Amino acid sequence: MEHCRNTSRRESLLKPKAVVILSGGLDSTTCMGIAKTQGYEVHALTFNYGQRHQIELQKAKQVAEHYQAADHRVVKLDFLKQIGGSALTDMDLTVPTTGVGEDIPVTYVPGRNFMFLSMAASYAEVIGATAIFMGVNALDYSGYPDCRPEFIHAVQEALRVGTKAGVEGHPIAVETPLLHWTKAEIIKKGMELEVPYHLTTSCYLGEEEACGECDSCRLRLKGFAEAGYTDPVLYKKH
């Protein structure tokens, strides 16, 4: 038994480390599956930023346990709740249920992904992680400016010039494997990797049964339908 523990410990030391920004949603959980498949020791990072869909935190915990994450940290960010400006953090604003349009929707949270990546980079530097995985997507998404390739490239450059790891010549890589995939392609890849979609949540309203009407639910249902699979989570309306 001691030999097995020592072997497992040595194998862990040999694995590269990755920080996975884990919301408990479909995309971030798929990223967790991809990072594990690529041989990373995964360290999950979840943010409690006052979002109305607090069920994300519970789901993220379950996903982290499923993938046996080396660590799972939940960071509380009061500032985004304090300033509001988004239907996800301000209960006086209504979550839209009219479908994805061309304008940036009210569910956009100002500065959210910028903060998330900045804190993930700090964590990565401390633990010696070589990569940060984030499930942003520029195709089937809700029009958020911080989900575009331009934003990711800018953050990668900032990490190159603004971190100890970057200055020393080995900048932390921002891995966004889903960036150019449709939701259907993401789901197909996830099913291939046996990603536990039954543990995930996507609904902006944050109830046990998804509403089936918000932008996030609509994109998720459309993705499953186009991929040829049945979504394993429960919906009030389908």
What's this entry about, in short?
This protein has 238 residues and is of the alpha/beta class.
Task: Describe the secondary structure blueprint for this structure.
Elements: H1 2-14, E1 17-21, H2 26-37, E2 41-48, H3 55-66, E3 71-76, H4 78-83, H5 112-127, E4 131-133, H6 149-162, H7 164-167, E5 173-175, H8 183-192, H9 215-227
Helix content class: 40-55%
Largest sheet: 5 strands, parallel
Number of strands: 5
Low-confidence stretches: none
CATH superfamily caption = HUPs
How far the N terminus sits from the C terminus, by CA atoms, comes to: 50 Å
Mean of the pLDDT scores? 92
Judging by the overall fold, what is the CATH architecture?
3-Layer(aba) Sandwich
Provide the spatial order of strands within the biggest beta sheet: 3-2-1-4-5
Give the count of structural domains: 1
Amount of beta strand:
5-15%
Shape: globular
Number of helices: 9
- The CATH topology is Rossmann fold
- Provide the gyration radius in Å: 18 Å
Helix-strand topology string: HEHEHEHHEHHEHH
